[in-house]
Amino acid sequence: MNEEKHVRRIVIAGGGTAGWMAAAAIARTLGPAVDLTLVESEAIGTIGVGESTIPPLVNYNRLLGINEADFMRATQATFKLGILFDDWKDVGTRYFHSFGLTGKDHWSAGFQHFWMHGRAKGHEQPYDDYCLELVAALDGKFAHLPDDRMNYAYQLDSGLYARFLRRMAEKDGTKRIEGRIGRVELDAESGDIAALVLDGDRRIEGDIFLDCTGFRALLIEGALHAGFDDWTHWLPCDSAIALQTPNVRPPVPYTRAMAHDAGWQWRIPLQHRSGNGLVYCSRYLDRDAALERLLGNIEGEPLTEPNFLRFTSGVRRRQWYRNCVAIGLSGGFMEPLESTSIHLIQRAVLRFVRMLPAGRVSARDVAEFNDQQGQDMEQIRDFLVLHYKVTNRRDSAFWRQCADMPIPDSLTQKIELFRETGRVFRRNEELFAENSWVQVMMGQGIEPQSYHPIATKLRDDELEKLLATIRGQVSDTVAKLPEHHAYVARYCGAE
Ligand code: FAD
Fold first, then answer.
1. Which atom of ligand 1 is nearest to the CA of 212?
2. What is the CA radius of gyration of the chain?
3. pTM of the prediction?
4. Nearest CA among 50, 70, 236 for reference residue 167
5. Complete domains list, the chain, with CATH
6. pLDDT tens readout for residues 167-178
7. Do 331 and 22 contact (CB within 8 A), yes or no?
8. Which atom of ligand 1 is nearest to the CA of 213?
């Protein structure tokens, strides 16, 4: 094998959450097998938002050998069991998308079929009562349970997470260079990236470059013009204002997503403060009105100046192009409703490590990476669009636009299948499993017209026993759980 052709020099451009997540994982996994350099500019800074996550991050940290309590102390993290959605189906309604499983599935049919049969037989207890994580969240309870029986994620300060990972990555051999990338130099023959040229003309050469420069996408778009698919016609919000407030009550183990007439508002409680943000569609709400709305619906006085952000929901057409891989916001962004951005970073980093070329970059690897990453993004997109499309809200031009918009065929199939039969299938390792789809589809107002006949196989007393047993297990377990905030304080050693 020709040694010269080996990918040894990996250069990461950008040191936000994406850059340092990539550096930490690559340095820890490959160690001295690669020569890893990260360039970032303190003067440019990072986007400074991104606080709510989903459960796979727990595994990412485990994979990197991170001690959870250390991580939570360093990032001021709390536990997250799901998202409470207010005013999405209709003003005045709410539902919860939890991370757990609801009830007990049979191999032939999900629990929702048995619950629907129960309802037809007069059992009125809500679907929510059968989900441990959901009941625990709304009760403000949390604990680690044996066998990972409590499925959770974190609410964290992503800037602190990047700093925490930086310490790890540097210890594991990553070289950090402070400086502003002024120019990206292409190889005249191959068209690949040859080097990053910093202000002052310092050159950083590499074999492969990870573009973690955020929305700027300096390498993948600025230099290589990989192209962008705009998804604004499906995800119309394009603006956000973020600010932080003190905690006026103990932090709860869930994120809130409160719809308003031109978008929605988040509230994310960390240990030491809360993150707040208004997401909106600038066609229907101007900046001043958006700020006024946000300031009118926060708890406590703001701790920070408002951070105004603009974005375009959509994806880079090629996530990996030539010798450049886009990771993080440079690869695309779908608005933060289901907290999926940091997860997409994680997926891209792990995928990249799995497909690290042995010699030259292989076109097959690139195609595989782009297919897999693209599929993740489309599946997440469909799940997000569901929240806007399926609603009874028609009280504003924004919601009427959402109700009227054409949606991807893949989503139509999922919605209509569930509406007709109560069935939902997880395809191709899709991120959001059946439980998520069922909770959100029912929460947004879809009433399935039928359910699987297997549910009717149960005698009335068997059905009653099944439902009562699951509810009992959930409520007994939750009753014994500690308060979330007390558990976090103890776990992180603050008590
Ligand atoms: P950035 O943080 O922007 O980092 C870019 C890096 O590139 C910086 O280090 C910068 O200095 C460097 N850089 C740029 N140009 C140059 C240059 N010329 N020279 C040198 N360095 C340069 N995600 C979630 O998972 N959960 C959430 O709840 C969530 N909420 C969000 C809310 C909003 C409104 C938005 C917009 C995003 C949200 N995200 C969320 C996404 C999340 O913020 C990002 O995915 C995450 O922070 C990663 O950002 P990044 O590292 O790609 O980019």
1. 52
2. 23
3. 0.96
4. 70
5. 3-51+157-229+313-361 (3.50.50.60), 102-154+382-480 (no CATH), 239-310 (no CATH)
6. 999 999 999 999
7. no
8. 7
